[in-house]
Design goal:
alpha/beta, 28 strands, 29% helix, binds ligand MGD, binds molybdenum atom
Length: 822
């Protein structure tokens, strides 16, 4: 066994270097509570990580029917045994004494404990009343990227097929709507072309607005191990902050926020100039090349250097690396998806790969990343603005086929228009046309933009709000009924990561109190509504996760995300398996789009695409004319300036995002002591230039304001680009400590963000707003409570104590970082 290391201080652990085309060595990471010896564990139960989208396989350690730790699974293709800090420590939240254990119902303005029957009757009765009085359009569902596939499929069936509402979306709208939209634009279907094993082969890895080091720590470990080995790849980083990715990059482009399309167009322009184009591939497998050539006229690197404010030589060098690479891998995430012109920017990354013919081969993958552990399933199963199994809502034959699977009338599935996106659902509630909102596993009172508005929408008297959560979140506090859910480790189900790897997560222990699995609650709801198919049989034909999975398999058969070759048994024991998995590919499929074959045939494809400026859907006729033979679509985009630019009153550009140690609104990570200690309170990042100009020092308390609200936070001076402020969005109000925050609504980044979204993906813009900053209190010797191991590390010279897992981390932690060479 290797020496114990503090995985808070060293989030990526020790290096296991490897060279191109060789096997990534195994390293098994584990954490067990209270000095427990692995031999003392009663049983290990198979699962995967739930605090990001990487899909790291792990076993849950159980002793005396309690979760006591986790251990990475060496056999799994995704992580080869490794785990990140959130996975090593985050499970402790399951034991929190403040878990919800009984349903709550609002009586005389107060939430009081009640029994399941009373709570569920209230929810079902209100649904039935509204259906009778106002029809299905008064009912909406807002779900998550954190439930299981079986739960989403059940929810989508209830909402689309049973109730008949098209107001169904997930927080995936805030997260990876643009991943899906960009894939639909270029390939007419969702589904990631890449595979994590592309890291093993790539000679250039480009990360666009993706702080992989902090947000997919194990995937980044794979990159670090390549960088430490022979013939390492060149990393390109596009991010205005000095992330750990930027630190390891051959070229770091730090553009002005909101200028991604300009930057991408210049890279593409440079590729055309040098003819770094695989013309044979483009001629055979793509449409739209001429339009791109025309559009790029004028997008010189010189112009982009000015607009994005990056050195022209760096743009040239990035284009040269990309253009001359032999195996190019690209990843895209929130720096693109939550910024201005989200879909248009993300699509240009696809265009690079199409131009270079770099798809479907080892080392040549695109990952339009997901963020949440099960976001892929929300999209697949039709619990967001999509229909199940990537069926096309504007193709009547697909609606008929779905109606066949569900044994209902096609007219019972609303498809007169695209399903309503989350921001629009909130708008309809504000207007009063939606009167019932059922929220599962998401916390919009902290995670949606413009929180002042969000609170007023969610606390409306005429809205019946149901919140199904594991804690009394800020959103649950506004609910009419709160339903206590069982979570990961307490229920069984499957979920799928970014590179299409499906994992099974088995139940390890019983949930606390009367908490029930989300699936059980949804099935109960369907029974109480008495939803039926056209033969009078129950619409939801299952009660257990495995039965739901079998139902889903039939729904997915023959579609791109084909699960028909999978079973729970097949997923037990070994590695996760990548879809499509069917008779033709019984062991799954490592890379899709090999040999220039796409799922974009007009009769088969999931989407005909949208206009990326107006968001208008492309009509079936237009699409057939554009792409009759089902090729890849090269879609060009004009750069447009961001909507809210700095002004005299609001001179800074505000961006928001994450830190390594916390997950979202911290309902889990703040209840894991090691993680909370590493990043206990909100901070704001600003550049040394701006600090000098304003006379600020590390630890000063600043008030950041936008036209929507204010946040107070201590200053951390970092290498972020000048003129830009960064706030982590993790800090809401359920554990507001007072102190720096006498004002109860001065901590969450989304007090400041604006109501605006990308026209094609409808993803809100969390990463470009104009803001002002003033000092309200001097540092008084205190430092910002920000980690030093991450993008928030202080600029050179600042004396800030290093982040560790606490003073006793090394002595007390029973963390093993074993290196099992293979
Ligand atoms: N530790 C941790 N890991 C997580 C999560 C978490 O909460 N915590 N959440 C998971 C989820 S759901 C998601 S969606 C992912 C998100 O993962 P990421 O997208 O990697 O995380 P973010 O911090 O939101 O944003 C990434 C970067 O975008 C940059 N950025 C901001 N504006 C711009 C811009 O205009 N252009 C460019 N090029 N870059 C810009 C920011 O500086 C930031 O470093 O992480 C997943 N993993
Ligand atoms: N300013 C700003 N805002 C952002 C972002 C940003 O970068 N900047 N990022 C956006 C992104 S990418 C995302 S994904 C969202 C995330 O936003 P949210 O989804 O609102 O954040 P979470 O804290 O993950 O909320 C999940 C909720 O589900 C509960 N939960 C966990 N497990 C279970 C379960 O098994 N069952 C049930 N019923 N409940 C469960 C948790 O307790 C928690 O309350 O935030 C978005 N908002
Ligand atoms: Mo996300």
């Amino acid at each position: 066994m290797a020496p114990h290391i503090d995985r808070i201080a060293q989030p990526w652990g020790t290096r296991t270097p490897y060279g191109p085309g060789t096997h990534w060595p195994v390293r098994v990471d584990s954490h067990l509570e209270g000095g427990l010896d692995p031999a003392g564990v009663d049983r290990w139960v198979q699962s995967a990580s739930i605090l990001h989208s990487n899909g790291d396989a792990l076993d849950i350690a159980v002793k005396d029917d309690r979760i006591v730790g986790v251990r990475g699974r060496a056999v799994d293709r995704v992580n080869h045994g490794r785990l990140g800090p959130k996975d090593l420590y985050g499970w402790q939240a399951n034991h929190s004494p403040d878990r919800l254990t009984t349903p709550l119902i609002r009586r005389d303005g107060e939430l009081v404990e009640t029994d399941w029957d009373t709570a569920m009757a209230a929810v079902a009765d209100r649904t039935k009343e509204l259906l009778a009085e106002r029809g299905p359009s008064s009912i909406a569902f807002y779900t998550s990227g954190q439930l299981f596939l079986e739960e989403y499929y059940t929810l989508g069936l209830i909402a689309h097929g049973g109730i008949g509402t098209s107001h169904v979306d997930g927080n995936t709208r805030l997260c990876t709507a643009t991943a899906a939209a960009a894939l639909k634009e270029s390939f007419a279907s969702d589904g990631q072309p890449g595979s994590y094993t592309d890291i093993d082969h790539a000679d250039v890895i480009a990360l666009y607005g993706h702080n992989m080091a902090e947000t997919q720590t194990v995937l980044w470990t794979r990159v670090l191990d390549r960088l430490a080995g022979p013939n390492p790849p060149a990393v390109i980083c596009v991010d205005p902050r000095p992330t750990p990715v930027a630190q390891h990059a051959r070229v770091h482009l730090a553009p002005r926020p909101g200028t991604n399309v300009m930057l991408m167009n210049a890279l593409l322009h440079e590729m055309l100039e040098h003819d770094w184009v695989d013309h044979e591939y483009v001629d055979a497998h793509a449409v739209g090349f001429e339009e791109l050539t025309k559009m790029l006229d004028g997008y010189s690197v010189e112009r982009a250097a000015q607009v994005c404010d990056v050195p022209v030589e760096d743009l040239r060098e990035a284009a040269r690396l990309i253009g001359t690479s032999e195996r190019l891998m690209s990843t895209v995430l929130q720096g693109f998806y939550q910024s201005h012109q989200a879909t248009a920017a993300a699509v240009q990354v696809n265009n690079i790969h199409i131009l270079r013919g770099m798809l479907g081969r080892p080392g040549c993958g695109i990952l339009q990343m997901n963020g949440q552990p099960t976001a892929q399933n929300t999209r697949e199963a039709g619990a967001d603005g999509d229909l199940p199994a990537f069926r096309n809502w504007s193709n009547d034959a697909h609606i008929e086929d779905l109606a066949r699977v569900w044994n209902i009338d096609p007219m019972d599935i609303p498809h007169y228009t695209a399903p309503t996106h989350a921001m629009q659902i909130m708008r309809y509630i504000e207007d009063g046309s939606i009167r019932f909102l059922y929220v599962t596993a998401t916390n919009p009172a902290v995670s949606m933009p413009e929180l002042g508005r969000m609170r007023s929408i969610l606390s409306q008297e005429r809205l019946f709000l149901v919140v199904q959560d594991i804690f009394l979140s800020e959103t649950a506090e506004l609910a009419d009924v709160v339903l206590p859910a069982a979570t990961w480790g307490e229920k069984t189900g499957t979920f799928t990561n970014v590179d299409r790897t499906v994992h099974l997560s088995d139940k390890a222990v019983d949930p606390p109190g009367e908490a029930r699995s989300d699936l059980d609650i949804l099935v109960d709801y369907a029974r109480r509504l008495d939803l039926r198919d056209k033969d009078g049989a129950p619409l939801v034909k299952w009660t257990t996760p495995e039965e739901a999975f079998e139902g889903w398999k039939e729904c997915s058969r023959g579609r791109p995300c084909d699960y028909s070759g999978l079973t729970y048994d097949k997923l037990r024991g070994g590695s996760g398996i990548q879809w499509p998995c069917n008779d033709e590919h019984p062991d799954g499929t490592e890379r899709i789009y090999a040999d220039g074959q796409f799922w974009s045939d007009p009769s088969y494809c999931e989407s005909y695409g949208r206009d990326m400026v107006t968001g208008a859907p492309v009509s079936p006729t237009e699409y057939k004319a554009l792409n009759p033979e089902g090729k890849a679509v090269i879609k060009a985009a004009e750069y447009l300036p961001p909507h809210e630019l700095p002004s005299e009153d609001f001179p800074f550009q505000l961006i928001t995002g994450r830190t390594l140690y916390h997950f979202h609104t911290r309902t889990k990570t703040a209840r894991a002591p090691q993680l909370q200690a590493a990043a206990p309170e909100v901070w704001v990042e600003a550049s040394a230039d701006d600090a000098r100009a304003q006379g600020w020092v590390e630890g000063d308390v600043l008030e950041i304001t936008t036209p929507r609200g204010g946040v107070t936070a201590r200053l951390r001076i970092t290498g972020i680009r000048a003129g830009v402020l960064f706030l982590p969005f993790h800090y809401g109000y359920w554990d507001t400590p007072g102190g720096d925050h006498p004002d109860d609504h001065g901590r969450a980044a989304n007090e400041l963000t604006l109501t605006d979204w990308d026209p094609a993906s409808k993803q809100p813009i969390f990463k470009t707003a104009a803001a002002a900053a003033t000092r309200v209190r001097a540092a008084d010797g205190k430092q910002a409570p920000a980690p030093t191991t991450t993008a928030s590390r202080p600029v050179d010279g600042a004396s800030v104590p290093p982040t560790t897992g606490g003073p006793d981390a090394l002595a007390d932690e029973e963390l093993q970082d074993e290196e099992v060479g293979r």
